[in-house]
Amino acid sequence: MIDWFTWVQAGIATAVALFCIVMGLAKRQPNDYTVGAMALIEVLLLVQLVVAIVAPFAGNQATGSVVEFYIYLVVALLLPPLAVVWALVDRSRWSNVVMGAGAFAVAVMIVRMLQIWTA
Amino acid sequence: MVQKTSTRAVGIGRVLIAVYAILALAATARSVFQISTQFDQAPLAYSLSALSGVIYIMATIALIMPGRRWYAIAWATISFEFVGVVLVGLLSIIDPSVFVPSSQYAHSDHATVWSYFGIGYGFVPLVLPILGMLWLRHTRPGHNAEVAADDPAVQDA
């Protein structure tokens, strides 16, 4: 894993979480901005996946459990699409809060992934 | 009367269901990893992890499904979680060796979602059943007309 990228990613996921939750509490329905923010999280997770695959060949070996790392990464990759599908089905403002909860879970999981990688 | 639409999967209750679903996923994925790779290190803790995963999945489904039977299942699973997090939380502080036999592993990452009152999950496992029980009380069957009248979110849904 690349430290700075991971922390930037966790920061963005946290910001997206706050943004989506605030939009929901402000009685806004899911819109291009909140769904787009979730898409951004997904793109960054895909970048993280590529980094994780390439890193060992560049001498960046995980010292912790690689299996546990990939379980976290795969579950994290599932969360934004599931939250977006939820928001497409349920057009109420609470879907923004649901996406916010998903984004926050991703943020926590990214930090945990770094702990596992460097354990 | 059999209700066709759920009275629990409405308004802010949907957020509760989403958080339950995330926790169900987290607890289940964790227990699959623990049991498949290192079950012998802490059999009781890892069995509890698996049990909590199943309970969270059942609670999530029970909150979504309509009707009195699912309402009762929701109460049962959410109460079980609350008792679980309090008991395991207390035990993990009083005597960690109950869950992790060898002291070599105590206080390491061989925890369950409920250890130390769910500290590894931001105490969400402790707070969630309390919110869940409040939501169940708010949406109890036969109470629906009143709920719909004073909660605009329910009318939207």
Give a short synopsis of this structure.
The complex is a heterodimer of chains A (119) and B (157). Chain A is mostly helical and 119 residues long.
What can you see in these coordinates?
The complex is a heterodimer of chains A (119) and B (157). Chain A is 79% helix and 0% strand. Chain A has 119 residues and is mostly helical. Chain A has a single domain (3-117), classed as Four Helix Bundle (Hemerythrin (Met), subunit A) (Up-down Bundle), CATH 1.20.120. Chain B has one domain. Chain B is built from 6 helices and no strands. Chain B is elongated. The relative contact order of chain B is 0.17. Residues 145-150 of chain B have low confidence and may be disordered. The A-B interface holds A 65, 67-68, 71-72, 75, 78-79, 83, 86, 90, 92, 94-95, 97-98, 101-102, 105, 108 and B 11-12, 14-15, 18-19, 22, 25-26, 29-30, 32-33, 37, 122, 153, 156-157.
List strands and helices in order, with pairings.
The complex is a heterodimer of chains A (119) and B (157).
Chain A: H1 3-25, H2 32-54, H3 66-89, H4 94-117
Chain B: H1 13-38, H2 43-64, H3 68-94, H4 124-138, H5 144-150, H6 152-156
Helix pairs in contact in B: 1-2, 1-4, 2-3, 3-4
